[in-house]
Design brief:
With 332 residues, the chain is of the alpha/beta class. The protein is 41% helix and 16% strand. The strands form three sheets. It has a seven-stranded parallel beta sheet, with helices on both faces. Strands 7-9-11 form a three-stranded mixed beta sheet. Helix 8 (239-249) crosses helix 13 (307-331). The radius of gyration is 20 Å and the shape is globular.
Amino acid sequence: MENDRTLPARIGLFGAAGAAGRSIAAALRARGMRFRAIGRSRQALEAAFGNDPSADIVIWDPDNPSSVAAAAAGLQTAVYLVGVPYDRFATHPPLMRNTLAGLDAAGVERLILIGTVYPYGRPRQRPVTEAHPREPHTFKGRMRREQEDLVLDAHGRNGLSTLVLRLPDFYGPGVERSFLHGVFEGAARGGRAQMIGPIDMPHEFIFMPDLGPVVATLAQTPAAYGRVLHLAGAGTITPREVATRAYALAGREPKLMVAGKTMLRAMGLFNPLMRELVEMHYLLTDPVILDDSALEALIGPISKTPYDEGIRLSFEAAQRALDLQGRKSHSR
């Protein structure tokens, strides 16, 4: 199906330039759907979507409801993907209030928030269903719960339908904000990979390209709204096993430097990001594993990339990036 550039985009990706936005954009493009790529940085949006005939690039200021309204004008569905630095999680609720005010002014009909497992706190059981209590014991979890509450409370107000889609940790080709990314880089370089431990506890990761088709479907599924849904990964795997498989693709034994909670605290004296990781360390010792049977009952079977394939694709992307970097350095 060809994209018709005369048709206006009806779905907007707020925070489009990140890995999740690129995944959803690819799925919309594959379905012949136009979309609006919305972000703060024109440079980042042009790099991601400048050659994409399906995309309309729009700059916004999420601190300004009138800017949100202008960016959302004419949209039916907004997908909220806005991330903030780990040391600025207090901005999540006010940014969502501004966004909801702008979407209301623009008459947007649907909002999908791509959420996290942080609001649950420590899991009481595995797997975790959507009925699990939200009892975050961390500041970041409380900020994410407040953000979710704003979205869920807005459902049915002024014609807006809302949905929260919670995801586990993620990985994928070129997904730099995954804490597995350094493993693929290390395997491609043949060097040492830094990891946060423990690395022998079964964990769950979603392969980021699998997200897009699910969101594209939910955007057109009215029955999905007014609730929370989970999208789980392709089962569980230990971080050490990811590293072993990635290095095996390079024909090498894993070279790992594992930082535990004590080392994170020490590193946090000099590195603010490491300091912020300490309170979320429980996710490595007591991981949240999601049950997404409710989502599957709603939209049917969900295609999930097996870990072997996802690891291979991520490793190959790291190899290509390394080769490109080498060619650039040689051409200077």
